User: What shape does this take?
Amino acid sequence: MAQTLGYTLNYQTTQSYTAGGTIPVGSACKMDATAGQVVVCTAATDAFIGIAQQDATTGQTVNLVVGGPAYALLGGSVTPATSVLTPTTDGSLIAWTATGSKAQCAKAFNFSGALTLTSGSLVLVNVLAGNVVD
Assistant: This one.
């Protein structure tokens, strides 16, 4: 069953695209080779454009948060309010390290008070689309 996050957060900027493949909710996305379509990021160097806020399959409309608060799927443990996040091979987000060219795409909030947020969690982040560093 497809999952949709049924909310709009204040200060959230969204954009609708057509899914060019299977996109799970909370996944970091990039533009596909097919014009107007998006797919899941598969590397830290991908040109990240936003985070999917619902599940989508090929041809369906998918809403991406391109700026502001969003829920994102973690692919590893991160320290909230400290870790800058980057996409990994399955579109989930992991802690960014300062080695090599990587897209810095989000920063995790810490509303839960947890010292570490765990892999597989859907967590609130601030989307920083378009930031790439070497």
Observations:
- The mean pLDDT is 82.
- The chain has no helices and nine strands.
- The beta strands are 13-19, 28-31, 37-40, 48-52, 61-73, 84-87, 93-95, 102-108, 122-133.
- The first strand starts at residue 13 and ends at 19.
